[in-house]
Amino acid sequence: MKYIIVLGDGMADRPLAELGGKTPLQAANKPAIDALAKRAEVGLCRTVPAGFKPGSDVANLSVMGYDPRRCYTGRSPLEAVSIGIRLQETNVALRANLVTLSGEERYADKRMLDYSAGEITTAEARELIAFLKEHLDGDGMTLYAGVSYRHCLVADGGKTGHTLTPPHDITGKPVKGCLPAGPDGARYLSLMERSYALLKDHPINRARVAAGKNPANSLWLWGEGTKPALENFYDKFKKKGGVISAVDLVKGIGILAGMRIIPVEGATGNYDTNFAGKAQAALDALLGGLDLVYIHMEAPDECGHQGDIPHKVYSIEQIDEKVVATLAEGLAAAGEPFAMLICPDHPTPIALRTHVADPVPYLLYSSRQDLSCGASRYDEDAAAATGISLGEGTLLMQKLLAL
User: Fold this and answer.
1) Which of 90, 167, 302, 358 has the CA that lies 20 to 30 A from 57?
2) Where do the domains of the chain lie, and which CATH numbers do they carry?
3) What is the chain's pLDDT, residue by residue, as a tens digit (403 residues)?
4) Three-state SS letters, 1-64
């Protein structure tokens, strides 16, 4: 039996007037997923435990079968692992976004124009981070380059317990009231202010502005945490697992769990990602000996944060056509029985442009047995109508592997 998790990050939503009162899942043309739904268990699952913020870190841990209440130490440490940073017990890691802030003179008077600096390229970002390192590294703080706008700061001897705001939560809003607060808050704010002074006139940003793109004119710190540890996935579930993702967060979880990280050329973390390549890589890995592959696609979430309705619908349709259909047909052609879980980690409603902790719709399919529960399609309303509701995200992995 082969097992696949198709994780459409932030795929769930709320009804939109622009879509005639439908959600992106309801508006999308997804014949492969809806065909599976007719023979699948479809329901709702709460992937974010009470008391936790609805982040992709907590929610992906849950779907992967790890209880955040027992193993979660913060978001950035998971990303740090993927970047290759060996955290020490005395380290605190923080996500360092390259963002676009407005041009008011005082930092506190600025607004968050773009949490991703126009989806800055990794090549541009690495040059900017290298420039910042020359001026900002020191006093126990070290910057590390990641992918696109996602980078990491490690503070040696740092403290936790800060109030740090995810930049995607305040898109278009003033940063005042959302600046770092806590034991090292002044230190972190000073670094952010200095980064703006250094970046605002950097040649890369001048070129981006001239080309009509958003400049990466500041660092923004959030997502603090300490050295993490996870139980080995094979030891926990007796399955050889792999992870396919373009983002360091999910790859970091996979590395900590001892899973194989499967690279895919052209994986971007947005709607232009190589959907077909991810599916083929998963199929090759499954037919090559892995028992389970976790395929994470960031695109719907990014579109949710950007308020991009057409591309969120498009991303869901690509997941249906290029990923779900390819895997189902490929495994059937190979004579391999399989079980597939399709779900988001959390909703990212277009209207809010940020995550919420609402239960997510899930679809659990087995090629060996009929799990039908009356659903004729897969979306938020269809999942609610079945009356099936799971109170713990970790139950999804348990139910999948029991098939």
Assistant:
1) 90
2) 2-72+229-401 (3.40.720.10), 85-225 (no CATH)
3) 999 999 999 999 999 999 999 999 999 999 999 999 999 999 999 999 999 999 999 999 999 999 999 999 999 999 999 999 999 999 999 999 999 999 999 999 999 999 999 999 999 999 999 999 999 999 999 999 999 999 999 999 989 999 999 999 999 999 999 999 999 999 999 999 999 999 999 999 999 999 999 999 999 999 999 999 999 999 999 999 999 999 999 999 999 999 999 999 999 999 999 999 999 999 999 999 999 999 999 999 999 999 999 999 999 999 999 999 999 999 999 999 999 999 999 999 999 999 999 999 999 999 999 999 999 999 999 999 999 999 999 999 999 999 9
4) CEEEEEEECCCCCCCEHHHCCECHHHHCCCHHHHHHHCCCEEEEECCCCCCCCCCHHHHHHHHC
3-state secondary structure of 128: helix
Tell me which amino acid residue 34 is.
Answer: D
Which three-class secondary structure state does DSSP give residue 387? coil
DSSP E strand boundaries for 250-373: 260-261, 292-297, 338-343, 360-366
Residue 4 backbone dihedrals phi, psi, to 5 degrees: -130, 135
Could you tell me the pTM of the whole model? 0.89
Cβ atoms within 10 Å of 242's Cβ, excluding its own: 22
